[in-house]
Amino acid sequence: MGPFIRVQSPRFRILPGEADELVNEGMYGKAVAEYLSERLPTRGYQVPYFGCEDWGWWVELAGYPFPFGVCIYANELPSGQLDCYVTDGATAARRWSWRKLQFIDCTAAVLRLHGDLVAIFRDDPDVQILAIDLDAPFVEAPSE
């Protein structure tokens, strides 16, 4: 996985009925998954589906020779907004492809997706970007 992007927005809240879809309590983020599934295609991505996982929400990206998508981790703030952490879903820099019988470098896809996610959030005046380079979700950026 590449770096995590931390964002907050009034548009990212727990949706009606979302709690019934959760695998594990408190793993919200459906609003962010819907938001990205609408905006990623404008940047050339194919988004066949999104869904809840045990760790958060997944937005599948099709057209890659390896499993790839967006991981969304979020928790609810006292205001009702979600504190969201978003990253790519690449589990390694290189993945073995049985179809091609070779390793495939995921770096270019990871870097492109990270840049596009940052751009999507920056283009929306309702979204506040708090960090774009965190090593893990739910961790504050180091103080200087």
Walk me through what this model shows.
It is a single chain. 21% of the residues lie in helices and 29% in strands. It is an alpha+beta fold and 144 residues long. It has one domain (4-134): TATA-Binding Protein. Strands 2-3-4-5-1-8 form a 6-stranded antiparallel beta sheet, with helices on one face. Strands 6-7 form a two-stranded antiparallel sheet. β6 (94-97) and β7 form a beta hairpin. 30% of the residues are buried. The mean pLDDT is 89.
Nearest-integer average pLDDT: 89
**Looking at the structure, what is the overall shape?**
globular
Order of helices and strands: EHHEEEEEEHE
Question: Describe the biggest sheet?
Answer: 6 strands, antiparallel
How many domains, as an integer?
1
Helix content: 10-25%
> Mind telling me which CATH architecture this is?
2-Layer Sandwich
Give the uncertain stretches in residue-range form. Answer: none
Query: Might you state the CATH topology name?
Result: TATA-Binding Protein
Highest-level CATH class: Alpha Beta
In total, the number of strands is 8
Order of strands side by side in the largest beta sheet? Answer: 2-3-4-5-1-8
Number of helices: 3
Strand fraction equals 25-35%
